[in-house]
């Protein structure tokens, strides 16, 4: 099974952000989208999950999704957007339960399960406007997982997380990747498509890397095939020098 984009162009008003993207994602893979600010990473995620209208076509298992309803999209795609502060007075448990809107919302089993996995059981009666940024990010991930969609789209999911929680999230995502969902009698492997700015997370969990530059697809390849030059082309940095500088900071502190 594959998720295929053909000649994808996405615009905001008269400004085209994504320019004729062509890609093929094997389901069951963890795909990391990288690139500098403003290159179109978030726009690509929103295009894939049907939030933004686009030219070109997107195919799921050889079927065009161009005319899918929001409910059809929600069965297959779940998206965790970039963090934004919410002041609604929903409780944590109510918020997580919203992820069940395409299922039986009275089913408390999956809600309790994802709250346990994300470590927010003790927050269940708190309202969103009383949470820290890191706590709210965990609640929103739990809501996304409660949707039980096989394709998970994450937009900078490590925002506002401390070091311990970042490590726990990576473990959680790696565990989630081992699962699958049954939809209409078909078994669909879990697939992760995520935008990152840091390098630790994608290097830890990424199978494939998709690099964007100025709204164009610069490269899409497996992690083990990445040439060292791709980092400077996509991110404008000498990746080897960057790694040496990070190591030197720790050596200067403790050696």
UniProtKB/TrEMBL annotation:
<dbReference type="GO" id="GO:0016887">
    <property type="term" value="F:ATP hydrolysis activity"/>
</dbReference>
<protein>
    <submittedName>
        <fullName>Iron complex transport system ATP-binding protein</fullName>
    </submittedName>
</protein>
<dbReference type="InterPro" id="IPR017871">
    <property type="entry name" value="ABC_transporter-like_CS"/>
</dbReference>
<dbReference type="InterPro" id="IPR050153">
    <property type="entry name" value="Metal_Ion_Import_ABC"/>
</dbReference>
<dbReference type="InterPro" id="IPR003439">
    <property type="entry name" value="ABC_transporter-like_ATP-bd"/>
</dbReference>
<dbReference type="Pfam" id="PF00005">
    <property type="entry name" value="ABC_tran"/>
</dbReference>
<feature type="domain" description="ABC transporter">
    <location>
        <begin position="3"/>
        <end position="239"/>
    </location>
</feature>
<comment type="similarity">
    <text>Belongs to the ABC transporter superfamily.</text>
</comment>
<keyword id="KW-0813">Transport</keyword>
<keyword id="KW-0547">Nucleotide-binding</keyword>
<dbReference type="InterPro" id="IPR027417">
    <property type="entry name" value="P-loop_NTPase"/>
</dbReference>
<dbReference type="InterPro" id="IPR003593">
    <property type="entry name" value="AAA+_ATPase"/>
</dbReference>
<dbReference type="GO" id="GO:0005524">
    <property type="term" value="F:ATP binding"/>
</dbReference>
<keyword id="KW-0067">ATP-binding</keyword>
